[in-house]
Known about the structure:
Blueprint: E1 8-9, E2 14-19, E3 22-23, E4 26-27, E5 30-34, H1 41-44, H2 50-63, H3 66-82, H4 87-92, H5 94-98, H6 107-115, E6 120-125, H7 133-150, E7 158-161, H8 169-177, H9 189-212, E8 215-218, H10 223-240, E9 247-252, H11 258-272, E10 276-281, H12 286-296, H13 306-322, E11 327-332, H14 336-348, E12 358-363, H15 368-376, E13 381-387, H16 390-406, H17 410-425
Parallel strand pairs: 6-7, 6-13, 7-8, 8-9, 9-10, 10-11, 11-12, 12-13
Antiparallel strand pairs: 1-2, 2-5, 3-4
Helix pairs in contact: 2-17, 3-16, 7-9, 8-10, 11-13, 13-14
Amino acid sequence: MDGGILPLYPQTCQKAFFTYTNSADIRSWKVFTMELSFDNTEVAFAYKKDSELKHARWLLKTMHYSWFVAVGTRITPFLMKTGLPVHGMIRATIFKQFVGGETLEQTAEAGKLLSGYGVQVILDYGVEGKEGEENFDKTADEFIKVINYAATQTNIPFISIKVTGIARVGLLNTLNDAPRLRSGIHDHEDEQAEWERVRERMFRICAAAAEKGIGVLVDAEESWIQDPVDRLAIEMMEIFNKETPIVYNTIQLYRHDRLRFLKLSHQIARKDDFILAVKLVRGAYMEKERDRAMLMNYDSPIQQNKSFADGDYNAAINFCVDNIDTTAFIVASHNEYSNLFAAELLDTKGIPHNHPHVHFSQLYGMSDNITFNLAKAGYSVSKYLPFGPIREVIPYLMRRAQENSSVSGQTGRELTLINKELKRRKVG
């Protein structure tokens, strides 16, 4: 995710930022000022002890070295498979920073701590990459278990799911390339039956969520399997989002076609009379997408540069705010600019900070300056909290390490804020 570091106006102690949109590469600029600041480290880190801040500083300094992260992300999965005693080291370092616990029950401690500061939780069962119908059924059951647990808590409004947890990637690839028929699949009896089982799992998950009043966030996937995920999410929205948003699709705005897709999704929702619900992200598969497009000689779906991704992201926020009566959305971003832009739009239009169709979210272990300052200002905001056995969440942890290492300015910004708070507390 992007850092989005913005300057302070010393004379007013207000944030200044510029909003722009891309239209045939024409940019329009407007200056906003507002009281909300993401530089308040006392608010950002109030929930952390001195020792926890020092631990976070040490870990982020380590992850700042891209060569170290590159080596670590390659050998860690191997070491986990050898049976060597590395679990304790992982549990005490990167797992502690980015994961809520190994079991659903262990997330309660983190959830309770966050709740004390007005921060909610998005629970994510972080197990990935298992194939086979039996495993898909077990994963669906686990998602429902998470929903039932969330319903017993006061600060867990959403859970996150991956369709690749309940469907074979090869099937999704076939569906993605199939003609856009209502069935979404070629006339192949076995695959048709397999897809019906996927739909049945998805329906069970969403029905349980609707009964308990818990939102289901459907994660985005790579472009070559995304189309059936989109269609499945919209199909579930049509069933379950009639009166309140339950099912949310994820829109990756680093793809140049997703702003248009967002608007198309809204048209479908208006036509079929349901609430469109979306989670807005920039995206997670940029290098993989570009490499595959080059290898297979097709046009890359990724924006030509970061400014276009930023422009579409903020345009998506603007579109959702303009259609807030019929659209629920989550600003899931570590970009300070985009969070300030969304907050300012709500204020400008007189929309309550806790409007039921607006939510903000950042990953657990990252961007506390955004999360806790938004919560302090009365916005609905959450931490995305994964959980699962250490061995099973290694892919997620490796992505967090790579993200912190590769995103320009992200780790440096985090370290600057931590050092500022430690200095304010007068500890080394």
